[in-house]
Every structure is written in structure tokens, then in C-alpha cells.
Amino acid sequence: MGRLNVMKHALVPIHRLVPRDEEAEILGKLKASKGQLPKILKADPVLKQLIEEHGDIEKGRLIEIERVSMTAGVSKAYRLVVERE
Amino acid sequence: MMRRGIAKRVGAIRFAYMSPDEIRKLSATKIITPDTYDDDGFPIEMGLMDTHLGVIEPGLRCKSCGGRVDQCSGHFGHIELAMPVIHVGFVKEIKKLLRSTCSECGRILMSDEERDMNIGEMRDLEKLGGDSLDVRKMAKEISGDARKSDICPHCGAQQLKIMLDKPTTFREENTKLTPKEVRARLERIPDRDLIPLGLNPEFVRPEWFVLKVLLVPPVTVRPSITLESGDRSEDDLTHKLVDILRINHRLRENRDVGSPQLIVEDLWDLLQYHVTTYIDNQTSGIPPARHRSGRSLKTLIQRLKGKDGRFRQNLSGKRVNFSARTVISPDPWLSMNQVGVPVRAARELTVPMKVTGENIELIRNMVLRGPEPWDRDRYIPGVNYIIRPDGRRIRLTETNTETVAEKVEVGFTVERGLMDGDVVLFNRQPSLHRMSMMAHEVKIVPGKTFRMNLAVCPPYNADFDGDEMNIHVLQSEEARAEAKIMMIVQEHILSPRFGGPIIGAIQDHITGLFFLTHKDPLFTRREVVSIFSNLVMEGSPEAIEVDGERMWRGKEIFSHFLPEGFNIQLRSSICESCENCKKRDCENDAYVVIEDGKLLTGTIDERSVGAFKGYIVDKIARDFGTSEARSFIDRITTLALGVITLKGFTTSIQDEDLPRMAIRQIEDTLQQAEDDVRKLAESYWNGELEQMPGRTLQETLEVMALQRLGKARDSAGGIASKHLGLGNNAVKMARTGARASILNLTQMAGALGQQAIRGERPSRGYDRRTLPHFEKGELGAGARGFVRSCYKEGLNPIEFFFHSMGGREGLVDTAVRTSRSGYMQRRLVNALEDLMVYDDKSVRNPADTIIQFEYGEDGIDPMRSIKGKAIDMDDIIMEMNALKRARG
Ligand SMILES: [Mg+2]
Ligand SMILES: [Zn+2]
Ligand SMILES: [Zn+2]
Ligand SMILES: [Zn+2]
Description:
The complex is a heterodimer of chains A (85) and B (888). With 85 residues, chain A is of the alpha+beta class. Chain A is 25% helix and 29% strand. Chain B contains 27 helices and 30 strands. In chain B, helix 16 (508-517) crosses helix 21 (626-647) and helix 22 runs antiparallel to helix 23 (697-724). The site of one zinc ion (ZN) has 7 residues of chain B, from loops.
């Protein structure tokens, strides 16, 4: 029996692992250091799925989330991978 | 962009209970005598006012630390109780412990394995982030389990039922347990057995809940006050402690000389009473201790609890200077940027003025005029205080003006009364949005009320049925500048809540403008003069020649107040939304067209200028700025009042009079509906009613009945309004949006309609019927809350009853809603109050972490948006067309 892929669920927005070489540009655009970003737990179901696809994602990596927005159509958010809260 | 991080963070707070030993160690002295002061007025050693506990009189020194009144914050003392007493605050805990442990051996009433398993589960809960509330809940469940066995698994002793006679007496079956016995039992509970019961033996032992030693608060906590007569008056806590000491003394004596058990027990109970009321004087089940005057004493719990307690009164609540509060009343002559402040308040409230080389002469003159100068009956600001550079304040009186005026030097500060043009903050509670507190310019007025322009009623949600409001006088230049630039009323015409105007014309303003513009009436010279008499006019509107007389068109008069180059098109409130809108050629004059500041067609009403809806106000504020918008609202509201004053306007119940024919029509319609519902009910009983998909048969009946009756009321309303028409004043108000609605008129002239309880027809009350006037199982219209009478004719008693049911629900709902939404708002505000939008549009908190990457995800300020959108394409096209036309 195949496990449920949460990322395919209609209510889960698109998550993308940001490649290391894009990180600097994104952080520059956001005018923020990694510590100032919202966090995502490594134990998050979406992250587990991403790890299945990309291999291990160590803490400190960025995840880009593309959400459907009521006001803006589509909006992008970023989260920092952390082990625990 | 990195700002300071958080330097220190509170990891945890633990509240624990003090052991008798800790109390003794903390104590500066043991208290034994109930007397406070000796004959010379000095504190008695080992009395309640012992100077070891700190000092409250200047001149004396604390015997514990040597400090004076302002240096020593006081020290605790203690009383050794002759016999132990129960602490009221812990009776529940004690009951739980007694019931879940063995009365003989003190072990928890479960096997060691069970206990250890519970301890493990509790540790897991803590590890998983359960807070103290979760732990307490778990402990309660465990003790509930333990209580179930009535034989001790450790020693086999039979467990008797332990009862609590409120508030503090424990009973085992029928024998009373003295506090001493209770204490002995609690002492027997081993440390490890406490853990599953929710106590941490590292910090607390249950026997401490039975008091042997009482902590006495420092005198600084319960200072005595000297009355004017020279008598001393003691604090309530001191009174209570005196009682405790007296009884304690008598109890010890009687016990030591071996008095009869009965006497000792009575005294013991009395001591328990005093200690209980010392802690909580509102313990249920015992009479509160009272003062000689009959006032009940304010003891420890009463100091903290409730609205007047330390938390809500002193810690969360603060009182503020330079503020005033009084009833508000309307004043159409004021600008909406102004507030009328009565002389009494203006004299008391002050603004500090720094004395400089430039203004010293002016200020000396002000000081010379004294605290309450008048120019005949014209108000002139006075001076109340002069503050020297060293901070000393001199009060200015009528008699010392000259001496004080001489002393005034550069560097002094002078506190003068309010005067016209000062900036103050005006506020009405509940302050739910930022428009609840706006800056106004002061205008000194006679009378005793604050006065305000009617256009600012909507943002404050104010009316004049006794509402009170506050003003706050700004004390620094920075504050004044900030208020004037950001908080002045005109800056809040557009609401950040929905990107439309929240300030605008209301009620009579709208009716007045309707009279001015609907079907473009003509006004004579006399009339126009009368209308304009309260306006400051720049130029005058063009007249036209009618039958050799100069006349003014209403639309022309209105256009005079529109900014040049203003274009807009919209449908009025009175528009009947015809299927085929004829726009400019609308026969109801319901399509507003304004080109280059000229009102060409249409009636000005709520949708043009009303608060919340006014498109014209909205567009002027956006395209011409807030000053233009303020002046527009100020002027058209005054204009409207001029018109309505000229025309006269009234409404009465006769406005709901209907011709006999219409009344008969309405009656027929309602009768028809009632008959239909009766037939529906019959078919329901016969089983002929066709069930709707997804509904039970009964639900189907209800839905259909509601539908049918709703339709009946609407058509009754339709008949009524057809016969009333726009010539009727009540209809005028409803249609223009000035006041009331067509539904209100329907209910007055037609029928009240179905009364609903939780959205359904009333069904409860008696067995299968709502009232004993109906048959059991009756499902017709009248039996289930349909009111076919109207307000004007009056309701019959049965209808009145149903109407009251509906009315009650409305009241309860609003009461529940306000408290609930108030708390929701509070939590939301607390969570969001220190977030900020930065210039890159990101939303961040004080620790500089990102909360939202772009404000609102689209980065649009709702206050500057057009109904939430960044641009209004239709408006731009309309403007371009207007421009094209203007250029030919
Ligand atoms: Mg009111
Ligand atoms: Zn001291
Ligand atoms: Zn036992
Ligand atoms: Zn129309």
C-alpha cells in the first residue's frame, strides 16, 4: 500500500527545497538572516516527503512555499528547516 | 537590519507553598500580644506594629534593617498558633489527598506498580509539553482512580468515606476530624506517593496546608492611618490579626489549664473562623467578619480579587492626568475636526508652555491675568501653575499674580488652560478601532458637555442618549505634531477596515440633500439665502430665469460645493435596480452623473455622501486629499441642514396609514398564506407531503412553511410600500438610507411576520404545542409563532408572547456576542500590537523576525485601496473619457 503523499493534497501548498546557491539571493531580497525566518520542523510531514524525494535535508536549509492568496493571487513564503522548536 | 535580540527570557515561574520552618526563618519577630501601641503611641514589642516589621511613621527606624520609612520596605513576622487550623485556600487539595490515601498508613490507595506507572505517565506528559493545567487534570484523574478502592492495598485497612462540611470541617462518616488529625494523616503520606497526586515533594509537603504558623505581613502592607481627631485607625488586616491573636491566646490558656474539651473545641473553631476570614472573607458557608460600621472587612483574597482588586484596579488599570470626561452633545456649527470643550474643563486642563526669550512678555501677561480671566463674557485661557527649572510648582491664585509674574524667567514652564486651536485626543469606549481615538482642535464652548460634529458619530459609534467621552490634552510638541499629522479626524475619513469612508453624512443630512437634489427643485432668492445662512460662502451658484424671476436649481446649489474637475457616476440608494438601467435618463432621477464638478443628473443620498457608503466622499478624499474631503463634508452637511430646516421634516405613525383597500389586500395575502400552511400541515399528517432530498419529513414541512410565510410578509410589505410611495416621509428616509428600512415599514404597516428561535419556528413550551391555546400537534402558522398583526395595529396576547421570545433571543445573543467578540479582539490585539510593517513591506516583530513576507501578501494598504484593490479600472476609464470630452 502506497503511503499518502501529503504534498499532493489539495490543501497543502507547493513546497520547494531551495538549492543552496539560491539562498544568498533570496535572503538578500528579504533583507533578513536565516534566524529571522519562520521555521519548519524537520518532523513536518511535508518535510518528510521532501526528504524522501531529495535525500536528507539538514537543518538550516530553506523551503519555499507558494500559496494561493486571497489578495495577491499567489504569494511566496520561506521557512527555515529546524530540528526542534 | 539586525536589531537587538532578546537579552533575557523568563524560563518558568513556579508557585510553591511555604513550610512552617521557612516562615519562622523569614520572620523578623514572633508576634504574641494583640495590642498594637502603648499609651504613648509607640509600637509595642512583639505586637502587630512591632518596629521589627518595618516602620510607617517618619522619624522612626526599622529595628530589623535600620532603614527609615522610605528605605525599609518592611519585614514579615509570624504567629505560633496554639492549635493547627486548616488553610481555606487548600481545602479542595486536602480533601483530594485524604480521600486518595489510606487513613491508617498514609499510602496512596493503589499498588506500587500502579503508582509508578502513573508517575511515568505524568513524566511523559510533562516531557510532551503538557503544562501545569494538564498535570493537574491528570492528578485529578489519578486521585479519582485511587478513591475507588475502599480497602488499603498496603495495610488492608478499611477506608471510610471522608466528607467536607463547607468550608473547613472534615468528617469521616460521622466523626469529625480535627485539623490536628488531618495534619497527622497528611504527614503520613510518603513523598513518592505525592507525585501522582500532583504535588512535587521537593517543594511542598501536604501537612503545610494545615497551619501551625501564620505569616504576618509587614506593617507597610497594612499601615494604620491617623484620623484628623488624632485617633488611630487600623487596617482591616491588622484588625483580623488582632482577633486571631486574642483567640489564640485564650485557646492556649484554656488548653494548658485543662479546660473542658467542649470549651477548647469552641475556641479552636473560633480560631479556625478567624484564620479563614483573614485569608478570604467571602468564604461561602460562614458569615463574613464585619467592621463595627457593618462594612465587611477587606482581607487577603479581597485585596487581590475582582474589579477592585490589586490586579484589575492597580496593575492592569492606570489613571491618567490631563484628561476630562463628560456627556457629549451634537453641534452642527463645529467642523468635524473640532471638539467643543466646556469652560469648566478648559480651566482645569493645561498645556505646558516653555518660557523663552521670544515669549516671555506674552507669558508674563498671561500670568498677570490670573487663573480665570474673562474678557466680558469671552473666555481667555488662564494660568494654573508656574514650574521653576528645579521642578518646584507654584500655584497661581487671584492674589499672587503680580509677585509670580515678576518671578517668571526664561527656562520656566507655565501651565496654561486650554484655548481654541489646541490639539486634544477625543475618545469613546469601547476603543475597538483606531478611529475610536482621534485628534480634534479645541473650541471653547459654554455649557457642561463636550460638543462634536455629527459626521464623526459613526467612527466613535456615538449617539447623544447620555453617551460620555474622554479628552486627553497632549503635553509635548512631538505629541501635538504627531497627533495633528496622523490622528486628526480628516485623516480617518477613509477607514483602514474596508477602504471606504467611515465619516460622512447621516440621517437629516441625507434627507436634506435628497430635498435639495431630487428631481432638481427650484429655490427662490429668499430660500437660498436661508439655506446658506450658516455657511461661509465663496462665490455663489448660478441663477436661472423662470417666469421673469431669478431662481436657483437644487443640483446647481449642490454642485457649488463640489471640487472643480470632479467626475463620478453611480446609482443612488433610491435606485430601484430596474432590469434595464436607463442611466442618465432614469425616470426616478436615481443615476448620479457628475462631470467637472457639476451634478448633471441623479439624487444625492446615502450612496453618494453617507458614512460607510458615500462614493463621492470616498473619491474626493482619494483624488483631492483629506482637507478637501473634510471641507466638503463640513459644507454639505451644513447645507443639508439648511435645506431641511427650510423644508421642515417630520414622521409619525400616520406615515404608516394605508388605504382600506390595501389593508384588505394585505389581509387576504396573509390569510392565503395561513391557509396554505394549514394545508401543508394537513398533508404532513396525511403523509402526502413530498419529502425534500436530504431532509426529514418534518424538516421539509418547516422549510416550506417558513418559505411560504416569509413570502407572505414580503408581499404584505410590497403592498404597503406600493401604497406609501416616495411622497411619504418614512419611505423617503428608508429609501434614501437616512434612517430605518423598508423592513421596518413593512413591520409597522403590514405584518410582523414569522418570529424565529434559533432560526426555526418556535416549537417548545408545552407537550407538543407552544402554548395551551393550541391543540397538541398543531403546526399551523399562528401556532408556531407567525405574527400577522403589524406594530401599528398592535399584537394580540399570543402574538405578543412569540414576539417576546424572539426579542429575548436577540438580547441574549447581543450580550453573548459582545463579551465573546470583545475577548477575541483583546487576544488578537495582544498578539499583534507590536508588529510593524517595514518599508520593504515585510511585517516583523520587535525581535526582527519576519511574520509576513509582504503585508497582507499583496502589500496593499487597505486604507488607500479601492474596496481592497490597488486600482479601480472603471474609474480610470471614466476619468479618461471625461478628459477626452473636456478637450473636445
Ligand atoms: Mg448611546
Ligand atoms: Zn526594615
Ligand atoms: Zn494502609
Ligand atoms: Zn435606475
